[in-house]
Structures are given as C-alpha cells and as structure tokens.
Amino acid sequence: MAKAIEITDANFAEVINSDIPVLVDFWAEWCGPCKMIGPVVEQLAGEYEGKAIVAKMDVDMNAQIPAQFGIRSIPTLMVFKNGKMVDKVIGAVAKSVLEQKLVAQL
Q: Given CB 3.0 to 4.6 Å as the disulfide criterion, which of 7, 12, 22, 47 pairs with 80?
C-alpha cells in the first residue's frame, strides 16, 4: 500500500510539476486537526496510487513554500495540476470532500 510522500522546500517543484494531480497536506506534528486528517490522507495515497500523488509537507521543517502560498492555518490541503494550484481545503474535512477535489482533477 502506498504512503503519502514527504516533500520539502527543496523538492516541492519537482513534485507539483508531475504529469498527474498532486494533493499536498501542509501539516505539523503538534496540530490536533492534522493528526485527525492524517490517516485519511494516507488512505487516499493508497487508493489513488498511480493516478495521483499524495504528499505531506511539515510546515515547521519547511517555511519557504507554506509562506509562498500564504498558509496561515493547518491543516491546509492543496490540489495541484500541471504545476498550478487548482483547489484548496483548510481544516480537517471528511474523506469524501478531499476525494471529490482529487477526482475532479483526474
């Protein structure tokens, strides 16, 4: 079963410039809602393996990219297609909400 990949400020561009849609979970270890949505993000990574990339970025370890996108609240989940952000969700939401946003880009 695939797991969400960990991305950093350094490799962010190569990940979001993928040929397939990318869901990025901006999170932090101390964030309660991030811990709630974490298992959902991991499930999506397994279910959409080969169709989409599911990635996680720790905002405490990587400041450049979250600042670039103006992330002020976590979890923030962004969907990228062809290198551009096409959708965004802030806060812990139901799996169906994330799935709907990801499927819309397939």
A: 22
| Number of structural domains in the chain | 1
Backbone angles phi, psi at 80, to 5 degrees: -115, 140
Question: What CATH code is carried by the domain that includes residue 39?
Answer: 3.40.30.10
- What residues make up the domain containing 98? 5-103
d(CA 53, CA 32) in angstroms, rounded, equals 24
Enzyme catalytic residues: 31, 34
Average pLDDT over residues 86-103: 96
For the residues of 1-24, what is the DSSP string, one character each? ---PEE--TTTHHHHHT-SS-EEE
Q: Note whether 76 and 23 are within 8 A (CB).
A: no
